[in-house]
Amino acid sequence: MGSQDSEAQRRLERVKELENELANDRSVKLAGVDVDGILRGKLVSKNKFSSIAKDGFGFCSVIFGWDMHDQTYFRELKISNKENGYKDLLAVVDLDSFRRIPWEGDVPFFLVSFYDPDTKQPVSACPRGLLKQQLEKLSQSTTYGAKAGVEYEFYQFKLPSASASSSSTDGPPSAAAFLRENPPNALPSLTDGMFGYSLTRPVHNQAYYYDIFNTCQEFDCPIEGWHTESGPGVFEAALENTDVKRMADRACLFKYTVKSVATKYGITPCFMAKPKQGLPGNSGHVHVSLTDADGKNILYQPREENPQYPDIAHLSETGRWFLAGILEGLPDVMPLLAPTINSYKRLVENFWAPVTVSWGLEHRAASIRLIAPPTCSEKATRFEVRVAGADANPYYVLSAILALGWRGIRNKARFPCPPLGKGEDVGGASDKGIRLARNLREATERFMAPDSIARQVFGDDFVDHYGGTREHEIRLFDEAVTDWEFKRYIENV
């Protein structure tokens, strides 16, 4: 029996198992992920789910034809447009993604992936499909597997009262409604002041703090570490390490969980990369390691006596190629790690944020922090990619890391720059790495260039589509009139 037949048989068996598991349910919630990492889905009847669980169902392609505010792209793109009538895509349920939503009466929940209904191939821009392709490259060419952990920082704001945020007293208070009539700085922070790793600040919102932690556990996106971070109303969550595919799902569902739970407490979580001028931004650091068929970490090696750099004494040859590949391709994939106009407000000098192609053993200001013995155990040897913000799509970030790292292994890549030493500043005289893009326009132009490494590892269809979505974002910002402009020029010009 071929692999496709085996997969079909396994799927049939799982569908039958689910008939029993969902016997007492009346409905099922389904959701896919768009290019901005936002869940798009619907509630369906149990009968409907039973009819589509095996072969999938039609889902409007417009979720790849409009932006996060449902505005169609200025330049229509290949996947969804007027010419193809914003046709349906084939949405295939990932039966292994089953969990129940604890804050919605334990309604069953499944993630879906999107396929072309004619070719049955993954839609180029489908985040889950893109990551699956990178994992298949890794597993088909080698016996390697990949594990990851994600850390999210995010600000939290108190929702104003319903009377202050809306002309109507019906329904819960809305931050969006409040901000239509008030400046952003009028939205109060959950707590004031700077107090990272505080044991007392969470007590101020104790029920909310523990509800997030416990609900994430129930929804299968468990938190490993949970604490306050430096900044007014800022928390940080380190999600429990697992295989890359499951980690991407958990990272996406973590945001969904936080936003859903926060609503009950009148709180608005904010995963923007830089919500407040002059304060630290929100990072989305990603930890990645490679394993062999037995699950053993293959980035580690016993200490080498005379390595090229002291930093890599405990890093295997495969690990060196993987790291060099990420460093080489990093400038060409920046829109995946820093996807918005606001992303680049975080990536500035003097804020513990990486601004160059840089790396180093236990260097927390570099783009990539190598974590290896003697500061960790052999099995914990890994790379922390520190460029991505909390606003990035986790599927795209992990896809970029794997694609570039695998390219590095394949090409036996060499380091494009030496490591940064302790005390050496990122962007300083000793930093030999090139400056990363300063804004989304610069990043997108490099991403879409004919000779971009992004095109080599992802193909033209994905680069052209995703690049087109970023060009849309840039145009919207070009046409926007900001508060800064209005205040600066209203009287004096």
From TrEMBL:
One of its GO terms (molecular function) is glutamine synthetase activity. Residues 127-493 form the GS catalytic domain. One of its GO terms (biological process) is biogenic amine metabolic process. Signal peptide: none annotated. The keyword Ligase applies. Pfam families: Gln-synt_C (PF00120). It comes from the Eukaryota. Keywords: ATP-binding, Ligase, Nucleotide-binding. Belongs to the glutamine synthetase family. This is Glutamine synthetase.
